[in-house]
Design brief:
The complex is a heterodimer of chains A (293) and B (435).
Chain A lengths: L1 H7 L10 H8 L17 E12 L2 E12 L3 E5 L6 H7 L10 E9 L2 E2 L7 H7 E4 L10 H12 L5 H14 L3 H4 L12 H13 L5 E5 L7 H14 L4 E5 L3 H7 L2 E6 L2 E7 H6 L4 H7 L5
Chain B lengths: L10 H48 L4 E10 L2 H4 L7 H6 L2 H12 L6 H8 L6 H11 L7 E7 L2 H7 L16 H12 L3 E5 L1 H5 L12 H32 L4 H13 L4 H15 L7 H26 L2 H9 L4 H30 L2 H5 L20 H9 L5 H31 L4
Antiparallel strand pairs in B: 1-2, 1-3
Classes of the chains: A alpha/beta (293), B mainly alpha (435).
Chain lengths: 293, 435
């Protein structure tokens, strides 16, 4: 009976032994738009209020409101299909590319609505860079991968300046030492972890204000993951970072704030330390203690 | 329920069952391999047979029988007035020079009838060859020279072994007397097979020995070049728009269905369309490569669009996301990343389309490219024919000499195809990139 209810609610009940506890947690009422914790921060770069996302008939994100602070890492966690990636893609309007996707609500970048008619989507994406789950370097040389952004946006006046941007971007992404002798080799010839750092170098070459990362380490081994995490700590000095992750340890390691999503609702937001030591919502507690997800 | 923990079989029993099925499984694999091998061998055998027939028939077309004559460029015949005007030189009776040379070779021939029969050994075009030489170099007049002139169609067939001399005289194109002369010519080395320049450099002719393929080659070249220039950009642009920019709605669905249907429309229908619209309505010239190319463009567009869309679909979405995420506009995403990656697939589709266009004859019959055209086309509006239509025309001609010309034309057509495809494959290799 309870299992059937949970199933209808879209929850995957994996270990059958824990069913009663889980069912009880599901019954904790989720009130749409009533997020536990403080969603606001001082001097936010992004300020989102009442964001709804629909994929056709499906209501993927329900009345989500959250601020993203400058120079900090916000981790978004939650079970698969909870809408955290969808929300991330709202922030640079990548959902525009999906037919039938509809975003409503206000998302302010530096106080200006990114859905405003005057806001150009190309310019938005130059300000809000994105690193994807699977490393996706262009099938071009390492140099061309990093030079692509500055080139299309016309950021470099001449070849020397472009070289300089490529050099510093690779340096900041911690990849320069490994690739400095083979800049003309294809980007796809690198290892998975190197490819992901190349993608990060490519993103920071445009000098964005925010970097969105959609599970950037899910395809990488622990050593490569550690390097990316170190990198994020460094990048935080200059950029705001939003990361979607399935690894709670990673969220705990890299982020200052954590947001927990559940079935399209933003359940809880707070300082990362607080969320992991003293979650206030039952669902958050169940998730971070590994009862489901 | 109670004894689900106990396996139904022991490990040995399971092994025995697996072992029994092994033989059957391996046998199925061997059988399938045999089918595949048989299919490939059969296909290859047909191909080899086809090539053998075409080449054994057609190679003869590249060699032509010629007769050696000692020609005296008689000033009395060519230019009795001594003006050396080009018009006078052109209108002179060069046939008389050939007649005189032959008579010198066969002094025993007398009487008009016998002389006429003797001159029939030499092609009617031989006089034009002498005329061209004299017009090009009037200093020849008054001198003697040894010339290899084109033999007639019948002599050529005899030399290539297509005439059986044991037949009754009335049943073969060469009389007993002519055969005797030919034998004498062969005996003193004045008759032999030479490389057939005529076939590769001249236009069509009613006489097999004068018929050349170059008019059709030039026609095919102009037609295909124009087809490529029209269909590739239009096809790629249509595919890119439909795949990357168009919204999915009822209209795009309708367009998609229609493109797929167009690929299956019989080609002759496109010919009728071309006749009605391009020639009838727009008044473009008949028999011209321009109209042929427009018709073939209609024919190849569906193929190119379908293949190009498949190639675009095969580009991983992660590349598109990467480009858009970098702030590339949609057109930058397409031109910088998607198109280069899809280019090999698009070129493959274009090769298939162009190969089909090269072999197409039915729609071109409709727009008049089947006309008998001697002149070699010099542009896209000149009347011309194309290789497959030339093959069709010659295969329909009653003269025995056209049999080998037909096969020769097929060889040229195949060579054209090979050159075209090789170019495309090289181009494709250049564009090919891994990701």
């Amino acid at each position: 009976m309870e299992a059937a209810q949970a199933e209808r609610a879209g929850i995957n009940l994996k270990p059958s032994g824990r069913m009663p506890e889980e069912a009880s947690s599901i019954e904790t009422p989720v009130e749409t738009g009533k997020t536990v914790g403080n969603i606001a921060v001082d001097d936010p770069i992004f300020s989102c209020r009442d964001v709804d996302v629909f994929y056709g008939e499906k209501h993927a994100i329900k009345k989500v409101g959250i601020d993203i602070g400058k120079n900090q890492v916000l981790a978004m966690i939650g079970p698969s299909g909870c809408g955290k990636s969808t929300f991330l893609r709202c922030l640079n309007r990548m959902n525009d590319t999906i037919p039938n996707a509809r975003v409503v609500g206000s998302i302010l970048l530096d106080g200006k609505d990114i859905h405003d008619k005057k806001q150009d989507v190309v310019q938005l994406r130059a300000r809000v860079g994105m690193v994807f789950q699977k490393p996706n370097p262009f099938p071009k040389s390492i140099y061309e991968n990093v030079a692509y952004g500055p080139r299309i946006h016309g950021l470099a006046g001449d070849r020397v300046e472009l070289d300089e941007i490529v050099h510093s971007s690779l340096q900041r992404a911690g990849l320069w030492e490994e690739v400095k002798d083979r800049l003309q080799h294809p980007g796809t010839s690198l290892s998975g972890g190197q490819q992901q750092r190349l993608c990060i170098a490519r993103t920071i070459a445009v000098n964005p204000e925010v970097i969105l990362m959609d599970e950037p380490c899910s395809a990488l081994d622990p050593i490569a993951t550690a390097r990316i995490e170190d990198l994020m700590e460094e990048l935080r000095q200059s950029y705001a970072i939003v990361i979607v992750t399935h690894s709670m340890q990673q969220a705990a390691r890299v982020s200052q704030r954590t947001a927990y999503f559940h079935l399209g609702d933003l359940i809880e937001v707070g300082e990362t330390d607080r969320i992991f030591t003293n979650p206030r919502h039952r669902l958050t507690e169940d998730y971070i203690t590994g009862r489901f997800g | 329920m109670s004894n689900t923990n106990k396996p139904r079989r022991t490990a040995q029993e399971t092994q025995a069952i697996v072992e029994r099925s092994l033989k059957r499984r391996y046998w199925a694999e061997r059988r399938f391999r045999a089918y595949g091998l048989t299919a490939i061998v059969a296909a290859l055998a047909f191909l080899v047979y086809l090539f053998f027939v075409i080449f054994s028939n057609g190679l003869g077309a590249f060699r032509q029988t010629e007769i050696r004559l000692d020609v005296f460029y008689d000033p009395e015949v060519i230019d009795p007035a001594g003006t050396r005007h080009a018009e006078d030189l052109q209108s002179a009776d060069y046939q008389a020079l050939i007649r005189a040379s032959l008579k010198k070779k066969f002094p025993d021939v007398e009487g008009r009838a016998a002389t006429r029969e003797l001159t029939r050994l030499v092609s009617g075009s031989a006089a034009f060859a002498l005329q061209r030489r004299v017009v090009a170099d009037p200093k020849l007049i008054g001198t003697s020279d040894t010339e290899w002139v084109l033999a007639s169609d019948a002599v050529d067939l005899f030399e290539k072994g297509h005439i059986n001399r044991s037949l009754a005289e009335a049943e073969r194109p060469l009389s007993d007397q002519q055969l005797a002369w030919v034998d004498r010519l062969i005996a003193d080395g004045s008759l032999g097979l030479k490389f057939n320049k005529t076939f590769l450099t001249r236009g069509d002719s009613r006489e097999p020995e004068n018929a050349g393929i170059w008019g059709a080659v030039a026609g095919s070249f102009f037609t295909l070049l124009l087809t490529l220039l029209l269909s590739f950009p239009i096809g790629v642009a249509a595919a890119v728009y439909l795949e990357e920019f168009a919204r999915r709605n009822r209209w795009t669905d309708l367009i998609e269905v229609n493109i797929n249907n167009l690929a299956a429309v019989p080609s002759i229908v496109f010919g009728l369309l071309g006749l009605a619209v391009f020639i009838g309505f727009f008044g473009l010239p008949r028999s011209a490569p321009l109209v042929g190319a427009m018709v073939l463009t209609l024919l190849t567009l569906p193929t190119i669009i379908i293949a190009s869309r498949a190639a675009l679909k095969a580009v991983p979405p992660s590349i598109r996301e990467a480009a858009l995420g970098m702030g590339a506009s949609k057109i930058q995403m397409v031109t910088h990343h998607v198109l280069p990656l899809a280019m090999p697939g698009m070129l493959t589709g274009t090769i298939i389309g162009m190969a089909r266009a090269l072999g197409e004859s039915a729609p071109l019959l409709m727009i008049g490219m089947v006309a008998f055209i001697v002149d070699i086309p010099k542009g896209i509006t000149d009347a011309s024919t194309v290789l497959p239509v030339q093959v069709f025309l010659w295969s329909d001609s009653p003269e025995r000499g056209f049999v080998e010309k037909t096969s020769g034309a097929i060889i040229v057509l195949l060579a054209f195809l090979v050159v075209m495809n090789t170019t495309a494959v090289i181009l494709r290799k250049r564009f090919e990139r891994r990701w």
